Each structure stands twice: as C-alpha cells, then as structure tokens.
Description:
Elements: E1 4-9, E2 12-17, E3 20-23, E4 26-29, E5 35-38, E6 42-46, H1 50-57, H2 71-89, E7 94-96, E8 99-101, E9 105-109, E10 112-116, E11 122-123, E12 129-132, H3 136-145, H4 152-166, E13 175-179
Antiparallel strand pairs: 1-2, 1-12, 2-13, 3-4, 5-6, 6-9, 7-8, 9-10, 10-11
Amino acid sequence: MTCIIGLVQGGMVWMGGDSAGVAKLDIRSRKDTKVFEVDGRFLIGYTSSFRMGQLLRFGFSPPEQEGNVDDYEYMCTKFIDAARKRLKDGGYVKVKDSREEGGVFLVGYKGRLYQIDDDFQVGETLDGFDAVGCGSDYALGSLYSNKNNLDPKWSILEALKVAEHFSAGVRRPFVVKRLKGK
C-alpha cells in the first residue's frame, strides 16, 4: 500500500504521500494523513501500517541531539532507539528469529532525508530524493526524470500522480508538507 516521497531542495525537506488504506483487495481513502511533523524538528512519512504511523505521530518524543554527534550518527542511535521503544511499547514491533522488525518510513531532519527500513537500519540516498511503498518505483522514475525541476511540490505531486496511474495501491487525495532545514 501507499506511496511516500521525500525530496531535499534548498536546505528544506519536502514530503508527500497518498491516502490509500489497502487490505487485500479492498481500498479506502483515509482521512488520517501518512505525512506529518513531530516535535517541530522532524517530518515523517510512513508505509507498512497505519498503527505504526499513529504510534510515531502521537506520543513519540525523539530525544535532543547532544554534543558533537553528527546528524547521521544521531539518527542511527538516539532517534532509532526512541522509535524502536515507542513501537515496542505500542505493541507494534514483531520478533522473528530473535530479530525485531518494525516498518518502513521516511524521516526529514535538519535538511536531510533518511529512510528507515523494517530492520531499523537508517539509509540516506545520494540522489536527494527517496520513496517508499508499493508506488515507490514509479515515483522514483518520475523524480529522476524531473530532477531539474525547481518546484519541489510540483515534482512530488507529479510523482504521486504517476504512482497512482500505475499502482492500484496509491490513491488521492495527496498531501505535501515541508520542513525547514537547520
């Protein structure tokens, strides 16, 4: 289900997502958005589960970044530790073969875009954009072909339209938000 897109431009992170709620062959447009701000410092967009998104949106308080820890190290340690705890306390984390599994989401923080995978690894692409969900391949193709466009909102909306056209799990309305950088 879904398509979540993140794009970094001019020191700001932009993120957009669809509104599809998919269960087997059933699909509904949901009112609760999959892209939201947390603590005024983070922009989060998720796929995998609405419950996971609710846990990250409500009651999740990422710790402050302290000392000389760079942003990537902070995301891989303090941020992930807090996210894992929130998901675990909320009953969302699964344990399979003694390994915890969560879900997939994008995080905008201090002008950078990170992808969190279901094994809680933190990734950052060199492209300055990323996408997750069943429509991600279509969105990435659209973002790449429009990478010289200077309007990030247009690029995200265009990529979401392409994903919707080719993927049965992507549906309007689309939501686009931005988070200022450092």
